Amino acid sequence: QLTNINGKVIIITGASSGIGQAAAKLLADKGAKLVLAARREDRLKELQLEIEKAGGTAVFKATDVTSREQMKALAEEAVSQFGQIDGLVNNAGLMPLSYMNKLKIDEWDQMIDVNIKGVLYGIAAVLPHMEERRQGHIINISSLAGHEVGIGHAVYSGTKFAVRAISEGLRKETYDKNIRTTIISPGAVSTELSNTITDPDIIDMFNSGEPFTFLEGKDIANAICYALEQPEYVAVDEVIVRPAGQP
Ligand code: NDP
């Protein structure tokens, strides 16, 4: 028996674009009550209206995942609006790839703050509530770059390896409290993720083009939904989804 996610309360970070936005639309179609978070409030508002127009339920809260207080306030908003939190999708992320000798140390800091600390603050914001209810599902978005390290990917991959390590540790400590933890590791998806790259050598590499068709946000939304909908006794530890043509 698949789990019916109709009525489940799910927080999605990074919902203003790409994978998070696609996940919001799919989960709303399935009847989930969504709490949408990102920094760009105008985009969240637009998405909320679109979801409501299609008959779904969503609220939004402008949130910077690098702020502990804002993440805590996000979880509190979910409880005050809908009474509970059934799921958290820790999806917000940045990918300013660069060669290490360019010393883009501010960008290293940003990736650590958003991709690692943001995930930790998300976990901290919902874990007490989920443990108390003995119910919940935390989905952390890692990457193929959390399995292998390409040129220019040293720090980004470091953050995504960390997301997998944190998720596995969380799983082992909470599975017996009826909390499920899932890692989703996408390959190349067509989103705005590469917009933050400032290293011209990496931009050139990207512009030379990849000889395969990228995934769409909805392809990863399907993986998120698959994990959420499994029967209660089934835990999906990790899903790796790559473009069929990506080596
Ligand atoms: P996008 O750039 O399209 O989306 C990133 C999202 O993260 C935006 O909604 C952005 O919202 C949000 N975000 C960034 N910084 C913050 C912050 N400080 N606080 C709150 N939200 C923030 O990229 P994707 O959809 O591709 O990325 C989603 C996740 O998927 C990331 O974790 C990424 O690493 C991962 N991933 C993506 C792959 C790809 O090929 N695209 C492959 C593998 C993994 P805003 O700017 O409004 O705050």
From TrEMBL:
Origin superkingdom: Bacteria
GO molecular function, one term: oxidoreductase activity
Residues of the Ketoreductase domain: 8-192
Statement: the UniProt record of this protein carries the keyword Nucleotidyltransferase: no
EC number(s) stated in the UniProt entry for this protein: 1.-.-.-
Enzyme class: oxidoreductase
Protein keywords: Oxidoreductase
Keyword check for Oxidoreductase: yes
InterPro entries, per database record: KR_dom (IPR057326), NAD(P)-bd_dom_sf (IPR036291), Sc_DH/Rdtase_CS (IPR020904), SDR_fam (IPR002347)
Protein family membership: Belongs to the short-chain dehydrogenases/reductases (SDR) family.
Protein's recorded name: SDR family oxidoreductase
Lineage, top ranks: Bacteria, Bacillati, Bacillota, Bacilli, Bacillales
